[in-house]
Write a structure and sequence with these properties.
Shape: globular
Structural class: alpha+beta
Strand content: 5-15%
Strand order of the largest sheet: 3-4-6-5
CATH topology of the largest domain: Muramoyl-pentapeptide Carboxypeptidase, domain 2
Bound molecules: zinc ion
Number of strands: 6
Number of domains: 2
Distance between the termini: 38 Å
CATH superfamily of the largest domain: Trafficking protein particle complex subunit 3
CATH class of the largest domain: Alpha Beta
Number of helices: 6
CATH architecture of the largest domain: 2-Layer Sandwich
């Protein structure tokens, strides 16, 4: 892990929230970070906010709506009491009975998401976390799309044509852009012979976590919902093969190209 606490910048989270631009171009993964200080040049506070410090989980966020959906779907699985216990455990007491508002403002931080996922894992184990993630993923996906009906409709029209493979490719590329533009998560899509590859270079799900096995179940849940939506209900085998929480560079999720049903 090359994370370096010392690199925290002065950027305010509000700055990030203001720039909610759709289709914001994303930096390619692995782009070398610029040196913070050039020789003889004092570090300035007033510099334009650049997304450099990858260690500060309060700087990056999901829309409130998605945070809200995480909590409401957690309620479905574990009840309101369970969610209260979870929020307690995660050190997020202020959210008990006070879920984020139902809007697309980027205020639900990666730090919060990571802590929540870690709490669920702690309370319910790896398996329980998976069950939860499938449901939450589905709802996050649906909730996210309902805000973008016209975009989603256009995507669906485009996806009507072509082979199953072409549809999925188009669909994943669409969702990739969608996620990258409405949240601070950064995703790239690629493929090999047998898989679609969803690479998360800035991942909220495992933010701040250390695990022995991949733990980004929520991302898998969202992809399950997304691939089902694109293919009108087909199921695909989806697994996370690399995960930042276990020391890998990125979180890598592979989707088999041939559906199981
Ligand atoms: Zn991850």
């Amino acid at each position: 892990m090359s994370e370096d606490k010392a690199k925290e910048t002065e950027n305010k989270p509000e700055e990030a929230i203001k720039e909610v631009k759709p289709e914001e171009p994303q930096k390619p993964a692995g782009e070398p970070k610029k040196e913070e200080t050039k020789a003889g040049e004092p570090k300035k506070e007033a510099e334009a906010p650049k997304k450099e410090a990858e260690t500060d989980g309060s700087k990056y966020s999901y829309p409130n709506k998605w945070g809200r959906v995480m909590l409401t779907s957690a309620e479905e699985v574990m009840g309101a009491q369970g969610v209260a216990a979870l929020l307690n455990l995660a050190g997020m007491k202020t959210l008990i009975g006070n879920y984020p508002p139902d809007n697309m403002k980027k205020e639900f931080t990666f730090e919060m998401i990571g802590k929540l996922q870690a709490g669920i894992w702690e309370m319910y184990g790896n398996r329980g976390a998976r069950v939860f993630a499938t449901r939450a993923g589905e709802q996050t996906f649906k909730g996210g799309l309902s805000q973008f009906k016209s975009v989603a409709a256009a995507a669906q029209v485009a996806m009507k044509v072509g082979t199953l493979e072409a549809k999925i490719k188009l669909g994943l590329e669409f969702f990739c852009r969608f996620f990258n533009s409405v949240s601070d998560q950064v995703v790239e899509v690629s493929e090999d012979d047998k898989h679609w590859i969803w690479t998360i270079t800035r991942c909220p799900v495992c933010w701040g976590r250390k695990t022995d096995e991949p733990c980004c179940h929520l991302a898998i849940g969202v992809l399950q919902a997304a691939t089902a939506w694109v293919t009108e209900g087909k199921k695909f085998r989806i697994m996370e093969t690399e995960c930042k929480a276990k020391g890998d560079k990125n979180c890598v999720i592979k989707i088999e190209k041939i559906p199981v049903e």
